[in-house]
């Protein structure tokens, strides 16, 4: 599954176009490698997403084409969340 589609379906990022913009700016990495929106993700991959001054790392637990709001949280598990200093 494409990275931008997974981010939208899992509701980590609300819109697919926003997911594409963020990944094209190099703010998302898959298993430590900077990823593009078209990169493929699979179960077991770790995504590190930079939201402003925060980096959220999640592990992909499942892939689905569509997910209801209640199911979206089951697609990934939070590994860590860390603040980034601006210095």
What attributes characterize this protein structure?
globular; 87 residues; alpha+beta; Structural Genomics Hypothetical 15.5 Kd Protein In mrcA-pckA Intergenic Region, Chain A; S4_RNA-bd; ribosomal large subunit binding; protein biosynthesis; S4_RNA-bd_sf; single chain
Please outline the helices and strands.
Layout: H1 3-9, H2 16-24, E1 28-30, E2 33-34, E3 46-51, E4 54-60, H3 69-72, E5 76-83
Helix pairs in contact: 1-2
Helix content: 10-25%
What is the H level of CATH, i.e. the homologous superfamily? Answer: RNA-binding S4 domain
Number of helices: 3
Structural class: alpha+beta
CATH class: Alpha Beta
Percent strand equals: 25-35%
Q: Outline the biggest β-sheet.
A: 5 strands, antiparallel
The general outline is: globular
The total of beta strands comes to 5
Instruction: State the separation between the terminal residues, measured CA to CA.
Output: 36 Å
Describe what this molecule looks like in 3D.
The protein has 87 residues and is an alpha+beta fold. The chain has a single domain (3-83), classed as Roll (Structural Genomics Hypothetical 15.5 Kd Protein In mrcA-pckA Intergenic Region, Chain A). Helices cover 23% and strands 30% of the residues. The protein is built from three helices and five strands, in the order H-H-E-E-E-E-H-E. The protein has helices spanning 3-9, 16-24, 69-72; strands at residues 28-30, 33-34, 46-51, 54-60, 76-83. The chain has a five-stranded antiparallel sheet with strand order 2-1-3-4-5. A hairpin with a 2-residue loop joins strand 1 and strand 2 (33-34). Helix 1 (3-9) crosses helix 2. It is globular and about 35 Å long. The N and C termini lie far apart (36 Å). The mean pLDDT is 91. This is RQC P-site tRNA stabilizing factor.
């Amino acid at each position: 599954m494409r990275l931008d589609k997974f981010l939208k379906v899992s509701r980590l990022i609300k819109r697919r176009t926003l997911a594409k913009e963020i990944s094209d700016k190099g703010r998302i990495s898959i298993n430590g490698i900077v990823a593009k929106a078209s990169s493929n993700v699979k179960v077991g991959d770790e995504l590190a997403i930079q939201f402003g001054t925060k980096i959220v790392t999640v592990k992909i637990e499942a892939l689905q084409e569509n997910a209801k709001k209640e199911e979206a949280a089951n697609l990934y598990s939070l590994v860590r969340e860390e603040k980034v200093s601006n210095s």
